[in-house]
Amino acid sequence: MNQQISVFASGTGSNFDAMMQDEKIADSIVLLVCDKPGAAVVAKAEKFGVATLVLDPKSYPTKQEYEKVIYEKLQALEVEWIFLAGYMRLIGETLLSHYEGRIINIHPSNLPDFPGKDAIGQAYRAGVSETGVTVHYVDEGMDTGPIIAQEQIEMIPDETEEQLKTRIQAVEHRLYPNVIKQLTQNVTEEL
Fold first, then answer.
1. How much is the mean pLDDT over the chain?
2. pTM > 0.90
3. CATH of the domain at 87
4. In a domain, 77, yes or no
5. CB neighbours of 125 closer than 8 A, spacing ≥ 6?
6. Is the dihedral of CA 44, 77, 19, 163 positive or negative?
7. Using CA atoms, how far apart are residues 184 and 143, in angstroms rounded to an integer?
């Protein structure tokens, strides 16, 4: 029996797309949560027939009130796992306390290097010899939770930041679905 999954995203949804291309994962995704009304990922979810919960955090007096609405929807749908896919907000205590050890994030760097926003740009401008992709558990910090999987990506001289981003996303779109299946379905595939 598949465990119910919710994906949280804020932008274009390229990782959401990659998840939906894998039937074993797509069948388990019951809700897309988005904090940016009008984000491209919402239209993608609707195209795939996935229920959406689109909320503007500024419409709520506190982060707790915002997350309470999300939590109630997750409970109604019996969601067991939350996978962040370009969700640009820190998860607060309301969700962390109910989903401890079951909120996972993907980040486009070799954590602990380059946490937070624009990790690809940070790595590119720093002139490092390699960067990567990290899948990790979410805790109260910004990209500080225990690492589940990591893959290094060598920097290529004279590569543009956009070319680097394309290579990083290709790794994300392979690595994240494999980790999701391992966690939710005990499927073991080569990472």
1. 94
2. yes
3. 3.40.50.170
4. yes
5. none
6. positive
7. 21
Note the pLDDT of residue 25. Answer: 95
Query: Under 8 Å CB-to-CB from 139, ≥6 apart: which residues?
Result: 96, 145, 146
- The number of residues in the chain equals 191
pLDDT tier for residue 74 given thresholds of 50, 70 and 90: very high
- Residue 190 forms part of a structural domain: no
pLDDT confidence tier of residue 191, bands split at 50, 70 and 90 = very low
pLDDT score, position 2: 73
> Does residue 191 form part of some domain?
no
Nearest to 154 by CA among 168, 170, 135: 168
Pairing of strands 147-154, 81-84: unpaired
Report how far residue 68's alpha carbon sits from residue 62's, in angstroms, rounded to the nearest whole number.
10
Q: What is the pLDDT of residue 68?
A: 97
Sign of the CA dihedral running 143, 148, 153, 154: positive
Of 169, 159, 151, 135, nearest in space to 12 by CA: 169
Which residues are marked as active site?
Answer: 107
> What does the block give as tokens for 18?
């990659």
- Give the model's pLDDT for residue 136: 98
